[in-house]
Amino acid sequence: MIEASFYLIVYPTPKLTGILSAENGIKTIRGFASATVGNVACGFDVLGFAITEPGDEVILTLDEEKHTGSPVSITSITGDGGALPLDPKKNTSSFVVLKFLEYIRTHKQIDFTGHISLELKKHLPLSSGMGSSAASAAAALVAANELLGNPCTKMELVHFAIEGERVACGSAHADNAAPAILGNFVLIRSYTPLDLITIPSPEHLYCSLVHPHTELRTSYARSVLPTEIPLKQAIQQWGNVGALVSGLLTSDYELIGRALVDVVAEPKRAPLIPGFFDVKQAAIDAGALGCSIAGSGPSIFAFSSSEKTALAVGLAMKEAFLHSKARLESDMWVSPICKQGARIL
Ligand SMILES: Nc1ncnc2c1ncn2[C@@H]1O[C@H](COP(=O)(O)OP(=O)(O)O)[C@@H](O)[C@H]1O
Ligand SMILES: N[C@@H](CCOP(=O)(O)O)C(=O)O
Asked: What does this protein do, in the record's words (predicted)?
């Protein structure tokens, strides 16, 4: 039976309200960015999507008259159990704002001389496979951009969010950062130069995302991966990436399901997630189109072609975690794909 943990069905709702307050050269604004799922099975480091909730919130206060050593400071962090750094160069939320300020000074001739203080309200679990580090960065970036009159496009902001990932786990992968800012599915055709393609989602595609109560660091989950793969595996993998993109563009739900196969990362990471194969089987048995590891894990996601099925799938996955050897409690969200990306609340 499912008891202590919780589940939620989420919808895309928050409306734009802009600057929270503006008095005597002091302006306050709140940014929000939701959880993202990297890889989407076959697209290691090149494909990711955003769900609508949960997400991180960042409140920025700009004081034009305050001049201190660092232009950005963190005044408080809640929801992290004291785990996250307050040093502005070490927290992804503040680090990316520093990068953004540097960029607008050198590329847009905007020399910001005041101070931005940042409150981080962490709602996403750390090291979860839900793009937690990217969500903090994306929320802070849209808020900073709005505070300074939107000098950058969202596409430009993605560059700074990716740099935040390097701070979090040592690797500048874009499959969380890009959808956290842009919304939808995002395909990374190339990293140098960065070439991102947003892919709209089929109308009835729902994600069940289940987070077992355990942590798996992205840096560790990357260290177990091979540096080279045999050609046979590569052929399977790029066949599935192409098919998945085609399925998304044509709303071919069966094809989406067939394409959710990962022969590169999943076999190496599955042993790091207690009960992975049972949870995946439970999702398929409950009617999911397909199921795989969310990002680097330990969360697991599944796609369904209706909200009702997605709910049944998510509950079956929770149950399977609970009955696994590790008897893991979990949280679960059922969500459509987020179309909007990071936004001002
Ligand atoms: N604002 C932040 N939110 C989450 N993690 C952060 C943040 N700033 C720095 N980090 C670092 O990144 C690590 C989490 O990153 P990672 O393992 O990639 O998890 P996730 O899958 O949640 O992004 C944390 O251990 C923390 O040290
Ligand atoms: N492509 C990355 C995605 C990591 O996502 P996270 O949410 O676990 O940080 C990888 O697979 O390492």
From this structure: Catalyzes the ATP-dependent phosphorylation of L-homoserine to L-homoserine phosphate.
Domain match, 163 and 72 both:
yes
Ligand sitting nearest the alpha carbon of 221: 2
Among residues 278, 270, 279, 171, which one has the least CA distance to residue 219? 171
Between CA 3 and CA 295 the distance in angstroms is 27
126 is in an annotated binding site: yes
- Domain encompassing residue 227: 206-336
pLDDT per residue, tens digit, the chain (345 aa), is 333 455 565 544 444 356 777 777 899 999 999 999 999 999 999 999 999 999 999 999 999 888 888 999 999 999 999 999 999 999 999 999 999 999 999 999 999 999 999 999 999 999 999 999 999 999 999 999 999 999 999 999 999 999 999 999 999 999 999 999 999 999 999 999 999 999 999 999 999 999 999 999 999 999 999 999 999 999 999 999 999 999 999 999 999 999 999 999 999 999 999 999 999 999 999 999 999 999 999 999 999 999 999 999 999 999 999 999 999 999 999 999 999 999 999
**Ligand minimally distant from the alpha carbon of residue 168:** 1
Distance CA 98, CA 92 (A): 10
**167 shares its domain with 267:** no
Cα 210 from chain centre: 14
78 and 131 housed in the same domain:
yes
Q: What's the number of domains the chain is made of? A: 2
Closest protein CA for atom 6 of ligand 2: 129
